[in-house]
Amino acid sequence: MIETERLFIRRFKPTDAADLFEYLSLPEIYRFEPGEPVSMDEAVTLTAERAEGDNFLAVVVKASGKMIGHLYFEQRQPSDFRTWELGYIFNPAFQGKGYGSEASAALVDYAFANIHPHRIMARCDQKNPASWKLLEKIGFTREGAFKQVAYFRTDEAGNPIWVDAFEYSKLEQGH
Which region, left, alpha or beta, applies to residue 99 given φ > 0 means left and ψ of -120 to 50 means alpha? Predict the structure, then answer.
């Protein structure tokens, strides 16, 4: 578990399902993310899967015990390159309070001290300034802009609606 001034960052627990459902059931979450709003049953399944894996971490407010979001952290391939990818989703009711940057910075610090990646990277939609400002706030550098790099939706005819993304990174040297 990682602890900050206001947060615990820990593995998922089965009791996190209701809090996960609270935000993953909202259509607005999927504006910049793949997927569709989930049902409570799907949230229970996702919580169980995440509790068994290592790639998703719950972000919990110390004072209340409420899970307000989650972080994604996974090693990219090939593993010899020692590059890890960071991602995050937070409950909109808790956005704009610094929780995302606090949690992400703590995970990045933990990773550099304990996992020893060479590089941690993150991609975000160019139309999502909250995400790229968070990355800049915690010391990531914008490395590039990618045109039509991914799609999460299709139009009425089934054609992909491509999105442009920024890629950011932070290197072990200088951290």
Answer: alpha
Centre a 10 Å sphere on the Cβ of residue 70 and count the other Cβ atoms it contains.
27
Percentage of the residues of the chain whose pLDDT score is greater than 70: 100
Summarised one tens digit per residue, pLDDT across range 36-68 is 999 999 999 999 999 999 999 999 999 999 999
Q: Read off the tokens for 43.
A: 């949230």
> Residue 167 CB: number of other CB atoms within 10 A?
17
Q: Is 95 exposed, middle or buried (0-12, 13-18, 19+ CB in 10 A)?
A: middle
CB-side neighbour CA atoms (13 Å) of 170: 22
Domain 2-171 CATH class label:
alpha beta
